[in-house]
Structure formats: C-alpha cells, structure tokens
Write a structure and sequence with these properties.
Helix content of chain B: 25-40%
CATH topology of the largest domain in chain A: Rossmann fold
Order of helices and strands of chain B: EHEEEHEEEHHHHH
Strand order of the largest sheet of chain B: 2-3-1-4-5-7-6
Structural class of chain B: alpha/beta
Helix content of chain A: 25-40%
CATH class of chain B: Alpha Beta
Number of domains of chain B: 1
CATH superfamily of the largest domain in chain A: Thiamin diphosphate (ThDP)-binding fold, Pyr/PP domains
Distance between the termini of chain B: 7 Å
Oligomer: heterodimer
Distance between the termini of chain A: 52 Å
Shape of chain B: globular
Radius of gyration of chain B: 15 Å
Number of strands of chain A: 15
Chain lengths: ~400, ~190
C-alpha cells in the first residue's frame, strides 16, 4: 500500500532506512524538508544517528567527510548556493575517494537570486569527481538513494543523487517505501578500508607532489568509468528486492522505434510522456532518460541512440558563452558512429519556469525546417522582453 | 484527470490544504498529486497550490492551468485576475466569505461560505482551509467525509483533532451534498 508522502519526507525516511551514522546539513530551500525530516526522526528516537547542525554548507560537507573517513556511513544534502559553498569540500571528498551520499535538491544558481528548480547547481559540480544520478520521479529518488549508498561503498566514490527541487521535493504523491529488512539486506554494515583508526595511525589527504598526483587522477577517472557496472548492478539487484527498475545508466522510454529522440535529465520526462500521448498527430519520440551523468555512459548512449535521425537534448542548465552542457557530450560520444543523429540542443525550465504540456510540440517542431540543427538556445525564453541589444 | 487549484495567502495553509486533499484520495486507493505553485514564500503574499486526482498514476508535473475547481481562501483574491485564470467552462469556485451565498449569474458558479467564521468558532484560529475542504468534498462527493478526518488524524491528535473533526462536520452541513457531483464527474472523465 503506497503512502501519501511529500517527496522530501519520503526521502528523509528512505535515508533513515539506510542507517546513516552521521548526518550533517545546513538548511536551504528546497532541500530543507529533507534534513528537517531526518532531524525529526533522530529527535523522536526513530533513527540512531549523530545529527550535526552546522553553521554553513562548507562545514556540513566537512563534517560528512570527516565522519566517513572515521568509518561512519555519512550523508548530507544541499542545493544551489549551498552546493557552491560546499564546492571546495566536494572536490576533496571525491579526490580522496571517500564513500558518502548526498542529495542535491536541484535549484538555480544566483544571480539574480532564484530559489526555484533547474539543474545549474549539480551541473556546476560536473567535474568534481562525484557520481551524479538524476531522478525522474520521487519513487526513483527513494530507490536511487538506497542504491547510492551501495554504489558509493563498493566503488569508494561519493554519489550525488539529483532530485528536482520543488517539482519533486515538494510534491505529495503515493510512494512506496522499502522495509527496514529489505534495506538492511541490501546495505550491510560498511567497513571503509581506507578509513582512519587510532589502532593503525595514518594520514589521509596530505600533500601529494608531482611525482604521484597524475596517478591519483588517473585512478579516480578510471574508478568513475568502472562505476558504470556497479550502477547497473545496484539497479538490477534492488529491482530484485522491490520490483522497480530505472534502467541503470539510462532508460529508453516512449516509442523505441521512433527516429526522433528526446534526451532528458530529471523530472520533465513524465510531462513529455503525457504530452506525446495526448497529441497523436505529432511525431512520436523515443525518450532517453539519462540517469547517470557522471560517469557518462558513452556505450549505453550509443546503443540507445541507434537508428535515430534526430536527437533533441533538453537541458535544465547551460554553459554561457558556449551553449549546452550535456548536448556537446552526447554529440561527442555519437560522433564517428555510422549515421549518427543530428543533435538539437536546447535548455528550458530555467529558474523554475513551468515546463508545460506544450513543450513537447515545441521540441518536435525543432526538426521541421529540414532538420538542420539551430544553434543552442533557451527554447522558452522570450527575447522580445529584452532591450534590442540583448536579444 | 480532475484538477483543482487552491488560492490563498502565505500562512493560510494552502499547501497543507492541497496535501490533505491529495492524502485523503491516496489513502482511499486512488492516485493524486499535490504541490505548491512556486511563488514567493512570504506570509501574506498571494500563493497557490495544485491538486490532481486520477484513476491511474499521474506522470505530468506541470502546473495546473485549466482547473475544474478553484478553492479561494481569501475573498479579496477574487479581484486578482490570475485567480480565475484558466477555469474550465463549467468549473466552479468555492470561496471563503461572510455568509453562505451562491452566485450562479456568470458561466461559473461561485459559492461563498463562512469558512473562517466556522474555524474561529471551532478551533479558535482564522484558518479557513479545513472548513473549505470539508465543504468541497461534500459538494463534489469525491470521497466520504471520513477520508478527510482520517487525513487530519495523520497530522493532529487529541483535542485538536476532535475540534477539527467538529469543524469538518459543521462545514459540511452548510452546503448541499452532491451539488457539484456532475461537474466533478464531467471534469474527471
């Protein structure tokens, strides 16, 4: 029987089921309800965990890092400016290969100040060396969170679970929570073999000179590439427990025979699926839900895109002065394939702009004019609102 | 799919109202989704929340643009053009106000009821949301009134729950049961 739960409350309970021993967080919209929920479970005695209220996100990530290195299962969560304030520590966590899990309740970055959803914050951490998994639904966020701890601990890499702020975190809907027994069997107590212990004194994160630094980076890069297998395996094994699967690295949905593809990250997928169903006069699309952005699943993408003539890459962030972030990467891994699809790269829904049902029609019409890709643009921006020189 | 938009001011419990309504539906075995309009989170600012109800899982996550029903917690918001925006042809509006009043002169029936007054009487706080929900459920017959009381029981306990229960019963008595059943049926079909 599913429960009526707000996404954040469900996530708090899912995290508690993973038995974190240390949670450190600083509240920020739209992440707040998640850590409030965990704090309440701790205060009510339902979760045996050290809940550390810190004075900033920099400290939140630092406490989580220290706790994980001391051998605890550790967790934190943030969004937007909080992610930026954590940035220094996030690179440390990944570079030191420390297994911990965080939720990014995806939100736009300042300035101008905006508290609403897009994915510029996690995209800004693209090169931090974290695994990044994007969730299309709250149910996927719950199940991915459980999987994330196993992936982190087996790969000795941190995992960022990206959950669209408000659109998912603040939506109440029917959700299934796994049982404690199911999670315990999937996530046995963890021993971090590189952790610090007074019985075996050593240092972690000390100065590494030019004679070793490149090898550290090489190992980290290849650990991320290898993590693809663990991401796929965790999704498959968890699906054996709860009967829900999310495609591992990515999932092909919609019409698999369509020659028009639409690649998305996050929660916009359901709206596009409904819009396609409600508009049978429009061309059908093969949806590619990119779940793992880091590691970037080159081979899985090549297979998912086979037979496509056009691929629209819809982003919730951008790289100003260049264009898309995900689009160029997709284009790069498809280049050299026999007859690769033409890539149409757009962004939409920035800073919380509503992604309405008519987005689907706007996307599929991108291929109307002979199909030559236009330069990257923000498809739902209205340049006529701007002064002439800014259009 | 049935779509409802709730308008109010920050602090009036708009999101709570949306969550309560959706919870009552979900606990009854159907599908529902409730979420806030992503406006400024300030006390007193005009805000909105959305509810969708369906017989099958709800995939879309866009805002509700063409609701079948509006629930308006502050009558002054009826003067804000955005409040009535997109209301369906036969859609109806439930508004808090001084006394029971039905205005059927326009294309859309507007039913005013003394929700804040009832809330002051029963729980001593000027929060119209629970009374409006009780009236809405009675008008549409979307679910038994007990479903709302069960949903309230997940949030409140003891004397506060009992007061809310009496408020629900009193609010339900002010309106005609099933008056909007056909509208709900047509919109949900």
């Amino acid at each position: 029987m599913p429960l009526a739960l707000e996404g954040s409350q469900a996530l708090a309970r899912a995290i508690a089921l993973c038995r974190p021993q240390v949670v450190a967080a600083y509240p920020i919209t739209p992440q707040t309800h998640i850590v409030e929920g965990i704090a309440k479970l701790v205060a009510d005695g339902q979760l045996d965990c050290e809940m550390v209220s810190v004075e900033s996100e920099h400290s939140a990530a630092s406490v989580a890092l220290g706790a994980a290195v001391a051998g605890s299962r550790a967790y934190t969560a943030s969004a937007s400016q909080g992610i930026l304030l954590m940035a220094e520590v996030l690179f440390d966590i990944a570079g030191l290969r420390v297994p911990l899990v965080m939720t990014c309740a995806n939100r736009a970055l300042s300035g101008p100040l905006n508290i609403w959803n897009d994915q510029q914050d996690s995209m800004a951490m693209r090169d931090s060396g974290w695994i990044q998994l994007y969730c299309a639904t709250n149910q996927e966020a719950i199940d991915t969170t459980v999987q994330a701890f196993r992936i982190a601990e087996r790969c000795e890499l941190p995992v960022m679970v990206c959950v669209d702020g408000f659109t998912l975190t603040h939506t109440l809907e029917p959700l299934e929570l796994p049982s404690q027994e199911q999670v315990d069997a999937f996530l046995p107590p963890y021993f971090f073999r590189h952790g610090l212990h007074p019985d075996e004194p050593r240092s972690l994160g000390t100065l590494v000179g030019p004679e070793h630094f490149s090898e550290v980076r090489h190992a980290h890069h290849h650990a991320l590439l290898r993590a693809q297998d663990e991401i796929v395996q965790a999704d498959a094994d968890w699906s054996d427990v709860v009967g829900r699967q999310y495609g591992g690295l990515l999932e092909v949905r919609g019409n698999p025979d369509a020659t028009l593809g639409i690649l998305t990250l996050g929660s916009v997928l359901g709206t596009l699926e409904d819009a396609m169903e409600e508009n049978p006069d429009l061309p059908q699309a093969r949806f590619i839900k990119l779940r793992s952005f880091r590691p970037f699943p080159a081979q899985a993408l090549r297979e998912a895109c086979a037979g496509l003539e056009h691929l629209i890459v819809l982003e919730r962030a951008l790289s100003p002065g260049y264009g898309g972030i995900v689009g160029p990467e997709v284009q790069a891994v498809l280049a050299g394939q026999p007859s690769p699809p033409r890539i149409h790269n757009v962004a939409a829904g920035l800073g919380g702009r509503d992604l309405s049902l008519d987005l689907y029609a706007r996307l599929v019409h991108l291929i109307d004019s002979g199909g030559e890709p236009e330069p990257f643009r923000i498809i739902d921006a209205d340049p006529s609102l701007l002064p002439e020189e800014d259009r | 799919m049935l779509e409802i938009r709730i308008h109010g001011r920050g602090g009036q419990g708009n999101v709570v109202a949306a969550y309560l309504l959706a919870s009552a539906v979900i606990d009854g075995g159907r599908y529902a989704q409730a979420f806030p309009a992503f406006g400024a989170e300030r006390r007193g600012a005009p805000v909105a929340a959305f509810v969708r109800i369906d017989e099958k899982p709800i995939r879309r996550r866009c805002q509700v643009r063409e609701p079948a029903f509006l629930i308006v917690q502050d009558p002054a918001l009826m003067d804000v053009p955005e409040t009535l925006s997109g209301l369906r042809a036969r859609g109806t509006v439930l508004v808090d106000g001084a006394a029971l009043e039905i205005d059927g002169s326009g294309a859309n029936e507007i039913l005013t009821m003394p929700a804040t007054h009832l809330a002051m009487e029963h729980i001593g706080r000027p929060v119209p949301n629970t009374a409006l929900l009780a009236a809405f459920i009675t008008l549409t017959q979307l679910m038994p009134l007990s479903a709302l009381i069960d949903a309230l029981a997940e949030r409140f306990k003891g004397p506060i729950l009992e007061k809310n229960q009496r408020l629900v019963e009193a609010a339900a008595e002010t309106v005609e049961a099933g008056r909007w059943r056909e509208v709900a049926h047509a919109a949900g079909a």
